[in-house]
Amino acid sequence: MRKIIIGLCAVAALTAGCDFEQDPVAVQSADPGKSAGKSGGSSKTKTFPIKLTAKRAHASKSVLSDGGALSCVKVTVTNQTKKQLEVNPLYFSITDTKNTKHDSSSALGEYEGQIDTTSLAPHEKATGLVCAKGSFRPKVVAMTNPLLSEAARAQVAS
């Protein structure tokens, strides 16, 4: 009986965080007046719970830098929800024009001005740099939540 209860608890713990029918997060446009999707002539703009904007940027290297190439974007995260929003530089990734995903943790601490680890109240915003090692052209930046599921995506403006 004890083995059955332990087994059921293990299965419940493993499947508790799974969301089997999770919809992909829509990519927010780099141009605030346009939708990122391919909608015909619709001028209706979609509101996102987490507004994320990104623009290509250059970072000043820190004393911890190993001198390697960095590709960076300046991001602004705006909390448009009614709850606190956790922001952390480890929650970001950058996808390049060849659709290769680059993790921001690869360059953590190697540049000045990275986005702060903070908690945003409703309607607050945070701005800072997100970088990844390597020389590539950023196309999309993505942000996850503390449970590491994607929360927001945005096209990177030039």
UniProtKB/TrEMBL annotation:
<dbReference type="InterPro" id="IPR029050">
    <property type="entry name" value="Immunoprotect_excell_Ig-like"/>
</dbReference>
<keyword id="KW-0732">Signal</keyword>
<dbReference type="InterPro" id="IPR029051">
    <property type="entry name" value="DUF4352"/>
</dbReference>
<protein>
    <submittedName>
        <fullName>DUF4352 domain-containing protein</fullName>
    </submittedName>
</protein>
<dbReference type="Pfam" id="PF11611">
    <property type="entry name" value="DUF4352"/>
</dbReference>
<feature type="domain" description="DUF4352">
    <location>
        <begin position="65"/>
        <end position="129"/>
    </location>
</feature>
